[in-house]
Amino acid sequence: EIIRLETNDSSIIKRIDKLLIANNDFYIFDYPMAQILSFNNDGSYNFSIKNIGQGPGQYIKLSDFDIYNDSLTLMSLMDQTMHMYDLQGHFARRIRLPDLQGNYRYIRYLNNDTIAFWTFDYENRLKFYSKSGNKIFKES
Fold this sequence. Notes:
- By secondary structure, the protein is mainly β.
- The chain has strands at about 20, 25-30, 35-40, 45-50, 60-70, 70-75, 80-85, 90-95, 105-110, 115-120, 125-130, 135-140.
């Protein structure tokens, strides 16, 4: 099935790097534009998240995103932070991650507390992180 996505000044997509579906909505990651776009299942534009900057609720550069339990989590490559949103695009909170030698690149929730990260740390690229403890508890 082909679904035509609504096009307007706010929904321009340069490149689709990742597509996730939650609650019958599509969430598209556009790496070059550093944004997440949301469309409903008939292709109508819902919203976009493009908060580039260094102020509250802003990020420097996105590297990935994931969805878990009605929470949209954006990974900021340069400042090693996660930015949490609800599935309607409303900012909830920012989490500063432990410092790494290298940067965080890809994110994948394993459960509500555990997140796996693929990183640019060439000695231990895979990191397992506990949200409740705000720490990396395993590397390989």
